């Protein structure tokens, strides 16, 4: 039987530190371009940070078992699908339909879709875990929901977020005991589909070629990668100093968004980027620990998925900035400018912190003893 424990302090403080870094670095990255603006990115980010932290504190106090109720899951799924379809009714931004806009406020439903798919998967697997390798009982409903949400996201188009969603769900299903043969088979089926999706859009092919050799076209397709590498490389060990970065001033496009890690590298150097990386390592460590100590299967699978949702996205973003992966348009959780990503990530941490408060006595004693 579960017992109430204290929330994981390391997980809480690592999250709070990254949010603080976000407010500071978004200000540094956008202050020049939006000087004097009352609605600049740094103002909005501070407001979203306050809202997100308030929601995290509220969610921390809600028993996570309430999230597996069918009424909650199906309502959330319906809202998510409607929101993913509603984006097409709003004007496109840079050729994409990813946001629902109300004046100065914009919402990105694809961020909510990741959390929705994860809740559905964890709740279903808890009930049907003993039939995990039965395609009709477990794999088919999970595939329909996760694949359907991912398909709507690809239509926006947003291939990177859809790929992260599917990767998170795949990790949870595999952890639940799915035979590796199904994963290998699914990978073989999805690989050509992914290749077709990439080939259908010329800009995606340009991203691939730019990733392979950004210096072949440093002023067009490889421009962002080249400028990002220059920013990170020029930071050295301790960086140029806060607010002293050069690349953010009309070199890196929108540096306060997906490439804010490059700004951190230039201004705070290797030490700054290592601290940020260390915070995500702490989140991964404590999140996996929470999954191991969870009192039931739902909590264990949900904690694993939430941890993967944040840390996988962070790994992809930092890898893109360092030219280790092709550009994806995926924000750095807690740090990049963007209200939807920040709020959803903080809500996810609130759920994870609530799970950390509950553990079976034996598991908790074993975990504390090892600690």
Secondary-structure map:
Layout: E1 3-4, H1 9-30, H2 41-60, H3 70-86, E2 100-102, E3 105-107, H4 109-128, H5 135-154, H6 159-175, H7 180-200, H8 202-212, H9 223-235, H10 260-293, H11 297-321, H12 339-356, E4 358-359, H13 361-370
Antiparallel strand pairs: 1-4, 2-3
Verbal overview:
The protein is globular, with a radius of gyration of 21 Å. The strands form two sheets. A two-stranded antiparallel sheet has the order 1-4. Strands 2-3 form a two-stranded antiparallel ribbon. Helix 10 runs parallel beside helix 12. The protein has helices spanning 9-30, 41-60, 70-86, 109-128, 135-154, 159-175, 180-200, 202-212, 223-235, 260-293, 297-321, 339-356, 361-370, and strands at 3-4, 100-102, 105-107, 358-359. It is an all-alpha fold and 371 residues long. Helices cover 67% and strands 3% of the residues. Strand 2 (100-102) and strand 3 form a beta hairpin. The mean pLDDT is 87. It has one domain (3-370).
Entry summary:
This protein is mainly α. The chain has helices at residues 9-30, 41-60, 70-86, 109-128, 135-154, 159-175, 180-200, 202-212, 223-235, 260-293, 297-321, 339-356, 361-370; strands at 3-4, 100-102, 105-107, 358-359.
Kindly estimate the percentage of residues that lie in beta strands according to DSSP.
under 5%
Helix content, binned percent: 55-70%
- On the 0 to 100 scale, the average pLDDT is 87
Radius of gyration over all CA atoms, rounded? 21 Å
Tell me the distance between the termini.
Answer: 22 Å
Strand order of the largest sheet: 1-4
Shape: globular
């Amino acid at each position: 039987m579960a017992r109430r424990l204290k929330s994981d302090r390391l997980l809480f403080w690592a999250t709070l530190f990254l949010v603080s870094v976000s407010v500071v670095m978004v200000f540094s990255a956008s202050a020049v371009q939006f000087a004097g603006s009352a609605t600049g990115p740094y103002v909005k980010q501070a407001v979203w940070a306050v809202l997100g932290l308030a929601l995290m504190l509220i969610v921390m106090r809600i028993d996570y078992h309430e999230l597996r109720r069918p009424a909650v899951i199906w309502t959330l799924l319906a809202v998510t699908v409607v929101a993913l379809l509603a984006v097409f009714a709003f004007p496109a931004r840079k050729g994409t339909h990813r946001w629902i806009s109300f004046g100065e406020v914009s919402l990105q439903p694809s961020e909510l879709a990741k959390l929705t798919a994860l809740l559905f998967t964890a709740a279903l697997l808890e009930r049907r875990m003993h039939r995990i390798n039965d395609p009709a009982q477990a794999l088919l409903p999970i595939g329909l929901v996760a694949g359907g949400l991912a398909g709507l996201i690809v239509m926006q188009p947003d291939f990177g977020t859809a790929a992260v969603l599917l990767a998170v769900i795949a990790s949870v299903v595999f952890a639940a005991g799915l035979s590796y043969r199904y994963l290998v088979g699914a990978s073989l089926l999805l690989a050509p589909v992914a290749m077709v999706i990439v080939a259908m859009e010329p800009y995606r092919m340009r991203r691939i070629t730019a990733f392979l050799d950004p210096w072949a076209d440093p002023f067009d397709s490889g421009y962002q990668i080249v400028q990002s590498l220059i920013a990170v490389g020029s930071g050295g060990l301790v960086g140029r100093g806060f607010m002293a970065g050069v690349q953010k001033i009309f070199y890196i496009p929108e540096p306060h968004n997906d490439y804010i890690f490059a700004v951190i590298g230039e201004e705070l150097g290797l030490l700054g980027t290592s601290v940020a990386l260390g915070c995500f390592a702490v989140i991964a460590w404590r999140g996996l620990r929470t999954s191991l100590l969870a009192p039931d299967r739902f909590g264990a699978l949900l904690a694993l998925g939430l941890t993967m949702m944040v840390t996988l996205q962070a790994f992809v973003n930092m890898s893109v900035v360092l030219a280790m992966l092709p550009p994806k348009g995926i924000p750095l959780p807690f740090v990049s400018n963007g209200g939807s990503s920040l709020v959803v990530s903080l809500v996810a941490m609130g759920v994870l912190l609530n799970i950390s408060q509950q553990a079976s006595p034996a598991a908790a004693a074993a975990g504390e003893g090892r600690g």
